[in-house]
Amino acid sequence: MKSTSSLSLIAGAVALAAVTGFAVLNEPSGGSTAEAGTAARLPVERTSLLCPAPGLSDLSETAYTAFTPSGGSGNSTTAGTAALLSSAKDGEAKTDDKSDDKDKKDTSKKDKGDKPVVSLKEPGKPATGEASGADSPALIGTATGRFAPGWTAQQTTTIEAGDGRGLLGITCTAPDTDFWFPAASTAKSREDYVHLTNPDDTAAVADIELYGPDGSLKSDVGEGITVPAGSGVRVLISTLTSKAADDVTVHVTTRTGRVGAAVRTSDDKTGSDWLTASAEPAGTLVLPGIPADATSVRLVAFAPGDDDADLGLKLLGKSGAVTPAGHEELHVKSHMTAGMDLKDITRGEAGSLMLVPSEKGKATPVVAALRVVRGKGDEQEVAYIPATGPVGARATVADNRSKGSVLSLTAPGAAATVKVTASAGSSGGTPVSKTYKIAAGTTTAVTPPVPTGLKGTYALTVETQSGGPVHAARTLTEKVNGIQMFTVQTLPDDRGTVEVPTARQNLSVLDD
Question: Which pTM does this prediction carry?
Answer without folding.
Answer: 0.88
